[in-house]
Please model this.
Amino acid sequence: MIKSDYDITSLTTLGVPVKAKYFAEYSSVKELEAIMRTPKYQQNEVLHIGGGSNLLFIHDFDGLILHSKVKGLTEYRKNESTVYVIAGAGEAWQDLIDFCVERNLAGLENLTGIPGEVGASVIQNVGAYGVEAGDVIFKAECYDRLTHKIVNFTNEECRFAYRDSFFKHEGKGRYYVLRVCFRLTPSATGENLDYGPLKSLAERLGHTPSLKEVVAEINEIRNSKLPDPKVLGSAGSFFKNPIVRRRYYEAEILKHGYDVPSYDLPDEKVKIPAGWLIEHAGLKGCSIGGAAVYKKQCLIIVNRNNATGISVSALCRHIQLTVHRKFGVWLQPEVNFIDTSVHVEILGSGTSKGVPEPACQCDVCTSPDKHDKRLRASALIKTHGLTLLLDASPDFREQAIRAGVYDIDATLITHQHYDHVGGIDDLRPYCLNKRMPLYALKHVADDLRRRLDYCFREHKYPGVPGFEIHEVGNEPFYFSGVKIVPINVMHAQLPIIGYRIGNFAYITDAKTIPEEEFEKLEGVKVLVINALRYTPHFSHLTVEEALAVIEKIKPEQAYLTHICHDMGKHQDVSGKLPSNVKLAYDGLKFTVD
Ligand code: EPU
Model:
């Protein structure tokens, strides 16, 4: 039975108010397939939830929420040393732990007390007290939303990493976990006793702790530090503990003069406790609009008093900024932000020379109006908790400082002309701890590898930015589960791309748009498109040509960008445009639902 306009607040442990357009539960693959084959639901954004213990809804969900009720806990004894336990995705995580402990099956005992359900443990690779679910997951049986087939993923294919898996990347939104097979060891005593407080347990007890004793000890520690979500809403750890290279930790973090703790990891990396950073940034108990930093464990944000998704997200940003200012570390949320809106900021709206043009004294270039100061074209997109940069203009450094850009998850390049890629080297601060994913057409990627060869050498000069180039074709692709549609357009004779994300599309430097590409733009609510000036140009749309494209796409709102000084003053031109068309300007912000 599918419910409409359904209140799902109580299905999340944070308890911020949220409704879903549709909500459906299923107990079998057959029921799931029936839902997924119904055209009415196929067209919707779909989000599969588990125990809701790791979700932050920023606003109501305009799509279908699925929840598994697939049950079952079964034990298969393979031999003396290996037992498999198969658990339905809809089983409560704690029921699985209790099932294993009762039967003296070791491996999962350290993960007692974690809220949520079995299915989500695969996605999130839940972890605590030195153990991660991925350590004992043998395989995951999933439903493929695209083919409607059942697919088994081995442990290796799940690509587990710290709070991470394949299902948070390429697999996001496509595979729904049906059952999980855990590989456990028959043993009455605890297996992983090295983590901090567990180390002294054997000494205190005078014997190797039994599974039940490990569970009791961890439950006690958890109860003393973590809020019970039934009493006080929270999503467990709100941020991930940053993992950085030891060299970076020593050179960039310790230089701030604080004794920031770290735990050694393999490969010359260290893990930094985010809770410590938050506490020592003076944020213990800090609150915004009913959301607060939990005093007993600062890594947790609690819903103290009718917090909303917006207030939790405002507190998250405040914590990120404050910790960054003090320790130079940008915290990444562990919680999944469910924000299907696309928040756009125009970083630059100018053509290749920008406005004012150097050495020009025309009315526009000497205008005092800030709308007539146009840096080279670029935009910043925030959606689903991710930050995406559209083109790295030569003005990127200035744009990033003005807009307060502290983190970029990926950069999408439209084409290789200097005014769109000249700022790539300035992405350095965002590549300190990762290789920045960079999306571009193949010929653009080849060109960038040639021009920026120093970023791709095996032995790089220390400090140069690192990139992971992804070649874009004609097909939509996914970045961290966000669907991105490339729009192929022509910049005179040069094939280049624009991008559609949700109901927002960004096209710059087009002169012509092939007929078949218009299909990809159907239903776009806000379109940013280039219009150089009123007079003709061989490789750029004029205002008149851009208006004809807008007329065809029919967005609710269009903004013209990549503007040159010949366009005229912002104020004069604004009065002449149709009501649904405006000139973009640097710093313009809008949200597309
Ligand atoms: N710390 C502080 N102040 C705080 C919180 C922590 O100084 O407010 C310090 C602690 O003193 C300790 C260090 O930070 O030295 C680490 O703290 P803790 O052992 O409590 O663990 P954590 O790193 O904060 C992680 C998991 C928890 C898990 C615990 C125990 C993440 C993001 N969180 O927290 O997982 O229970 O270890 O293994 O890795 C969850 O995912 O929801 C969760 C609760």
In short: The chain has 15 helices and 35 strands. The pocket of EPU is lined by residues 128-129, 225-226, 236-237, 240-241, 273, 275-276, 279, 297-299, 334 (CB under 6 Å). The mean pLDDT is 95. The two ends are 27 Å apart (CA to CA).
